[in-house]
Amino acid sequence: MKGITFLNPGDPVDQYLLIKQMTKGVTTAGKPFLTLIFQDRSGDIEAKLWDAGDEEERKYQPQTIVKVAGDIHNYRGKNQLRLKQIRPASAQDNVKMGDFLETAPLSVEEMSEELTQYIFEMKNPVIQRITRHLLKKYQKPFMEFPAATKNHHEFVSGLAYHVVSMLRMAKFLVEQYPSLNKDLLYAGIILHDMGKVKELSAAVSATYTIEGNLLGHISIMVNEIAEAAKELEIDSEEVLLLQHMILSHHGKAEWGSPKPPMLMEAEMLHYIDNIDAKMIMMDRVISRTNSGEYTERVFALENRSFYRPHMYDQDKS
Amino acid sequence: MKGITFLNPGDPVDQYLLIKQMTKGVTTAGKPFLTLIFQDRSGDIEAKLWDAGDEEERKYQPQTIVKVAGDIHNYRGKNQLRLKQIRPASAQDNVKMGDFLETAPLSVEEMSEELTQYIFEMKNPVIQRITRHLLKKYQKPFMEFPAATKNHHEFVSGLAYHVVSMLRMAKFLVEQYPSLNKDLLYAGIILHDMGKVKELSAAVSATYTIEGNLLGHISIMVNEIAEAAKELEIDSEEVLLLQHMILSHHGKAEWGSPKPPMLMEAEMLHYIDNIDAKMIMMDRVISRTNSGEYTERVFALENRSFYRPHMYDQDKS
Amino acid sequence: MKGITFLNPGDPVDQYLLIKQMTKGVTTAGKPFLTLIFQDRSGDIEAKLWDAGDEEERKYQPQTIVKVAGDIHNYRGKNQLRLKQIRPASAQDNVKMGDFLETAPLSVEEMSEELTQYIFEMKNPVIQRITRHLLKKYQKPFMEFPAATKNHHEFVSGLAYHVVSMLRMAKFLVEQYPSLNKDLLYAGIILHDMGKVKELSAAVSATYTIEGNLLGHISIMVNEIAEAAKELEIDSEEVLLLQHMILSHHGKAEWGSPKPPMLMEAEMLHYIDNIDAKMIMMDRVISRTNSGEYTERVFALENRSFYRPHMYDQDKS
Amino acid sequence: MKGITFLNPGDPVDQYLLIKQMTKGVTTAGKPFLTLIFQDRSGDIEAKLWDAGDEEERKYQPQTIVKVAGDIHNYRGKNQLRLKQIRPASAQDNVKMGDFLETAPLSVEEMSEELTQYIFEMKNPVIQRITRHLLKKYQKPFMEFPAATKNHHEFVSGLAYHVVSMLRMAKFLVEQYPSLNKDLLYAGIILHDMGKVKELSAAVSATYTIEGNLLGHISIMVNEIAEAAKELEIDSEEVLLLQHMILSHHGKAEWGSPKPPMLMEAEMLHYIDNIDAKMIMMDRVISRTNSGEYTERVFALENRSFYRPHMYDQDKS
Amino acid sequence: MKGITFLNPGDPVDQYLLIKQMTKGVTTAGKPFLTLIFQDRSGDIEAKLWDAGDEEERKYQPQTIVKVAGDIHNYRGKNQLRLKQIRPASAQDNVKMGDFLETAPLSVEEMSEELTQYIFEMKNPVIQRITRHLLKKYQKPFMEFPAATKNHHEFVSGLAYHVVSMLRMAKFLVEQYPSLNKDLLYAGIILHDMGKVKELSAAVSATYTIEGNLLGHISIMVNEIAEAAKELEIDSEEVLLLQHMILSHHGKAEWGSPKPPMLMEAEMLHYIDNIDAKMIMMDRVISRTNSGEYTERVFALENRSFYRPHMYDQDKS
Amino acid sequence: MKGITFLNPGDPVDQYLLIKQMTKGVTTAGKPFLTLIFQDRSGDIEAKLWDAGDEEERKYQPQTIVKVAGDIHNYRGKNQLRLKQIRPASAQDNVKMGDFLETAPLSVEEMSEELTQYIFEMKNPVIQRITRHLLKKYQKPFMEFPAATKNHHEFVSGLAYHVVSMLRMAKFLVEQYPSLNKDLLYAGIILHDMGKVKELSAAVSATYTIEGNLLGHISIMVNEIAEAAKELEIDSEEVLLLQHMILSHHGKAEWGSPKPPMLMEAEMLHYIDNIDAKMIMMDRVISRTNSGEYTERVFALENRSFYRPHMYDQDKS
Fold first, then answer.
1. pLDDT, tens digit, for every residue of D257-280?
2. Residues of chain A with C-beta less than 8 angstroms from the C-beta of B254
3. Can you tell me which residues the record assigns to a coiled coil (chains A, B, C, D, E, F) (predicted)?
4. Which of A291, B96, E4, F228 is deepest in the core (most CB within 10 A)?
């Protein structure tokens, strides 16, 4: 079945979906309704459930799987699902939440193995030990969490997938620019966003924790490295270097890094992070756009819209 | 004897001074000379030592006390000392380095006692214990270090004096605005710049340490609070609140705070820090300016110069 | 009775309220309705009056006191009042507008007396005379006007209350930093926003006057000082100093001050003004927030939301 | 004789010049010298007077006319005058200061007459009376002062010449855009910089007065209009409009206007002021540049340098 | 008949209008409706057509002329047309699209003649030939296109009218500032926005072409000049100068000019372009505002609103 | 022999060097001297030649090879060469300019071959033909020019080397992100800076041409693509796409791109360009710095200095 985000206005809908978000509203005529955001693996879509009272509110909580029927229509330039029928799925329907969650294109096992390989290649024992220690400490959430709550890699295992993609790029770059220190760059990549496992609340439907809000994943992780070094009884410059890699990876003070990169590897970490995040965002909107047309505007890409050239499809044929 | 910075062009000089800084130069005619910065408690002044070879270079290292004779002249709007005689002080001269260092107007003992009193007033045991623990851990450098290497409170015990002034202001403000939490604000003030004892190298002639450069005093202190909490086996929200106070006290991302203040007390800490630093800077330049004239431009005050009104002196009489 | 802004969704409402604002609308189904903003001393709340034609429009004009019944519900994260009954109050209801207006926590008499005391303490006769002259000239509106139309001190006597709070802070600061000239700072505080009595139209439901829009309260007040000096036949530097205090009190050109502060007292006036305004804003949103939760975003505080720590309430018990 | 700024490196110099500025210096070898800035009507040029002691300092004060001999050489991309001989001019030399001052291309009489004509054309009696009153009050300095101390129109009668050029442009524009109110625009132009007669100290070698520094010519002039209206017993909207024209003529808060233009005529005043100032600056540097070359960088024109095309000279022939 | 934009709330409407834009919507009650933007020569107005299904959607496409009846009401501070009747105009109605399109105040013939005259006055044969060649090549769209899709000169022949107004201003300015090269300035004005004939899709209801989006009118026109020079076998500096005039006419990089003006004429072109665009915008909103009131905010004028003084109407009488 | 930039203060110098730049100066004592910048393949160093008159000026013009003796000393934190002897090299010295010019680490032949291979891999015939056509047209300067006059790749064949490095990165990235169109990205890389062959004057000691200054390499190249398409009689969307790649490759308007990237490949081109330029800059300064020390500040890297960790050298051993 075609993913919900690939349907066009007029297409009928008759399938199971997961409720991602639910908000109550009142029409200008004073009647209550629900705004529901449904999702499947392809993304999400909005719908309105009119004349929905307290009972509906209880039945259609986030994380509920529902069976819906209706069709797609266009509302202010975005697709919406016009509901004709909706009911919560029951045990007999034989569907489970995992079926509706976007997930990384690689399995947790594949990614774990690949990460292990990168750590194995490190020659500096201090960097290797700290990285291994922290990866082990946060193994489970690190492999399951998204890399963000929106914009990019906001899916199950998004964080690990982002890290693996970045490591592959790093592997190429340390060959192209041999003055880069491989160990520092690899460790920086593996740890740079690991603080998100404490900044965010969960692997699915993540929100910000109090700690996440008050400290942020950067400071959380700088602390974690200090603690790891203490537990491993390490006291050498590499600890500072790793902390600096994390601290500076947003590149500029105004983007949340209290220190700008002062190591070549820190600068490169910032570039690699940026490229992988931006490519994922551009690829997603362009893949949903027809040749000769423009994508919707993407806020996180300076609100630009992108053009999908005719040659993309001509060259394939 | 009048402080070196209060002399006017034409005034003769014949006194002991401390060498603060020495730089070698070569005249455009190819001859070596030294640029010396002398200091006494009133501040510093520049001088040139012409035809100065390797021997002079060895004799006039920073931290050396010298006997100088000469006069003051004006060079590009700033006073310089024109050297006629110079020699290193010897044991018989009976002068010591402390005589030449600007120091806080309060003694270390007075300030220690006052700090103790503020901590004693705290009611929240967690905040009190962490503050006391850290103050004890870094007692000595905390009482001796400057608050910065330049701009403001850059003198012996400048950090402690800055903190005491801020606490006094805080005491007034928690009375004026009773919704402010006194403990959080007092602790935030005491700890906000304590990381400088690791960011800077020494109480006198301080430079930035590697740790100071790569992490900065904010991240250093956030780590210290985490470590203190661990040692004291404290795990409560107050730890996060204190870390946030430190993290946000520069007020904005572009000023080095990865998170903006999200607590009323954090916002107030930022204001109090700012006022005390700026007052010290303005007071210093205005006190050296004559009525009806303008101060030199102060880079850290948006490069403004300030006017000293006639009424300052009229009203006194 | 609990103030309207302290009610929670589900709470019933049955009380008198003042209409602060009324706007006509048309539902998407083409029917007219009114959006009413009611207020009592605790603040304001929005409500919709459906199917409201010309008669309702006439009856529910701003400044009308009404008796309403209904309940509170949450709409897009903000409380609204769902109207079940509404009627204009009549003479028998025995309610008056003043009952619904937020007003300063100090009476006009208390504040007048306190202001007089500060002026009495001034030693410089020129500054004292000009300040007294202008305070007398605008006595009545100065004691009744708000300090702004929104954001902070936007209540009856808000301007005078803001000034009194600032004077108390100034009293502390001139003791802490004795190089500050007390007379200049006190006079600057008293006069800094006095131009608002001409910039705004009234003490209640204030809008901007033509003069307010075209000149602004800063230029208005600079002119007033010039005129006062002329009438008092004063021609001395103090007049320029006072004008500069007013001119520069927004701190920077981009915030509306054509000259940045060039006097120590002008810089301090800017800080004190800022602190008092910001504290009032933060205090208000935090006092309406539960422990462990975040306030709504405050536009005038860089759109931040603030966290209300658990310890606020724990420490009280 | 060719103006001093039109000479090229290698050209001999033997003429009278006026000392515009004198600064003492000390060579790196410890010898005193003077840096002299000479001027004639074409502009100014720097020179060094080596081995210059107290006597030279007394003889070569600013505003002294001297006879100099030497040649032009290029120092870091700018022409300098290499002095071979210098002596103060005496009565017999029969030269006077006016011979060396750049002055407007129109005489004071011509400009006065033209100004009178523009005021005569005004139809609104209020605007006409205020403009005439103020022009009369400051007639003498207004006709003699420069428009600025540097950058543009910084010559004798520069202010009046700037105003006359702007009025001519305004005359064209009110015909092209008839919705512009001629009286308001003319009066705004005549008064916009009149405050400079109090902001600056003198027609020649002007510096900023205390009033100029603390208030600025904009606020000075807004006050003057208020005072004029009072004296003429005028109390109508036109007074506010004129004050707003002055207040907003720098266009934006960050350029010193506490209010942005809110009248069509105020916006136009800002444009006309800008064009006339910028044209004068560009014209001056381009006129001193050879075809196919670039001018020096002009700080007040965003530090740009301008290209002088070959066709300028080809088309002439 | 009064233009649609000059009607006031309550005024009845019964006339022909052109549909400029149509958008489908769904009410919060789930019913489809159309948002229609009608226009006549005075501007445009919004209306809602309730309960509008597929048939209405087909009938009321953009560019359709309709007969409407209803009245004007005010919705959130803007006038709307409340529809009571609507039908497409038929052949018998005897109305044509041109009747509803705003058009330049000068005829195409008048403007063509005036343009020819300016080109005739040029003395530099290279500049003259290139300008004439390009004007001839794009004669038809150049005389018909708007100067923009919104903000200013967005009407039929708006581009040509903008150019003619600018040329008249230039004619005055080359006389006032004779160092300006007339040929370069005239040619720059004529060509500066000619690229819009390729950037935009049509003279009416213009949208951006792919070429317009990817390259922009500036780069398009720089290419056109290169091509023209090639075809005319011209290879001289004037070609570069003309290209630079186009390239830099937005004034700054952040406004879309990859090079800032480096020619005096390029700087002036930027000023003239700006003045003519801004005057048109201000004039339009002020002409629709009553004396003593403020215009709506104009986004393209830094979101300012303008004041219409009482004297505008007093002086007329 | 060790490169000139790798010597330390105190090291003797006795070798051939190339004069890169020569400037005349006058000491504060009035004596002429020359400031010479010498270069060898490792970089450049400054020296002063005292008492240098017209004869020296003639002998030591830029591009002259000289034999020098002297030693290295430190002047204001930078190394200088203190000259003891200098003479122009003669034919017998058997040295040639090429020996002193930094050049790309790959030969022109290697790079040509590699470029050919990338073009060979293109599948889209339009893109392939245009790229091949332009590469052929500018083959010689393209293979010899630097990529810039300073900051990065400012050496012989720097442009080609920069392009080859970027292509290698692109090859990796199109595999990692298969939605990228390889042809568009490769062609964009090859052409993006090709306009520099017209913007700069020569392969060695390059300055900006008039065309370079007035149009810039971006506009030059957009024109070249248009011309190539015309000559090859190609009229398809790919031409616009290529022009857009060039136009947008600086990423933002304020960095000189009149259009921001609107193609995924254009965004990636910007990233690749940036990474290769920055790596070259960082690598150079870090390679000249000792472990545990900081590099000089690099203006083009936001004036940062970088830290060279101890582990770089520890890990090697």
1. 999 999 999 999 999 999 999 999
2. 253-254
3. none
4. E4
